[in-house]
Amino acid sequence: LIHAATMVTAGVYLVARFLPFYQCSEIALPIVAWGGALTALLAATIGMAQFDIKRIMAYSTVSQLGYMFAGLGVLNASFEPNAAAGAAFHVFTHAFFKATLFLACGAVMHGFAGQLDLRKLSGLIKVPGWKIVSIAMLIGCLNLAGFPFTAGFFSKDMILANAFSNGHLQIIGWILLLTAGLTAYYTFRVFFRVFVGPVEYHPGDEVHASHGDDGHGHGDHAHADHGHGDAHAAKAGDHGHDFHPHAPGWAINTVLAALAVCSLAAAGLYYIHWADGLIGMSATAVIAHAPTEHAHATLFGQDPHKIMYYVSGVVGAVGILVAFLLHYVGRKTAATSAADRFIIPGITSAAQHKWYVDEFYNWIVRRPLLVLAHIFYLIDKLLIDGMVDLVGALPRSAGTGLRPAQSGVMHGYAVSMACGIAILAVVALFLLN
20: buried, middle or exposed (CB in 10 Å: 19+, 13-18, 0-12)? Predict the structure, then answer.
């Protein structure tokens, strides 16, 4: 809940409340819009290539955050009463359906000994005890994909419509629309691979620690899959023994059901006047200082706010259809699908490695800073500390040299006096000559 609703979206809330400050510059909000749109697209392409279902949802969160920031950034030239409300509404709806998706993935992880690889899970809706999780996952996927009349559909549409209404940043609308199609695809890629299709599952690495309890501590869940015969157990027996998944109990199912219902019910809030309610004075202040004339663009010759329902609905349906054809139709095993024929060498690998963003950061930022840190450490240790130590050593050395002159021995003082007199005599003789 923290990850989906509060912590990662705090920046969106901050920008929404500080909109009047961003309006002080003509380039501030366009920078926010471009940063959000490119983030949404980049994270979506990464999510398409991942196999860990929780990682897919994590990159989906990054992508949706980009959507939210883009929704705030396109306000710069649209100045419509609900311009900023789309991003704020998406923060609200995203909290429900993304929490549903994450917790559904967590239930799968818990029940299958830590397994999250979509190539090793399939047909969970047919496994006893997993229908509620599967239905909740479906509702979350429909929201994330922007399926018509879900909460995610309305909040995404508000952002897309505002983007296309901004005549100066309409290209961002096209980027976000493409991202919406990719989102629908990778979302239902998970659903069609993991929750429907032939029944097959392989336990994760935690099976060694938990197997001893499977036949005793889980009650009826321990042998819930016996109704499917030995075929499924054979497919899951790659660790040398049969594996019986632990279906979630009433606590997990209740939470998932409540979140799924809220994900659908939140759609009704679309009909509230958001500019006066959710954003409050931030949007009102921006609109009050907006120029009286602005560029209001059209999409296919129509008002974006009226036609976007159909455009985004078609784009989302296409994404779901592609996922259905590539990851459900004709699939016989969990590990393979029709999508395997469309792997592009180099590009697919780069997307799986997150476009080497971490490696780029490591070589361009981290390693140079590490080298500089060692250099500055040596400068500090040898030069700065050396100078300080020298200042401290000089008085000590002087004191050590003068210490014999103050020994308290009488004949030592006599010798010193005699040497002093001899030196003065030599000096006087030299000056007289």
Answer: middle
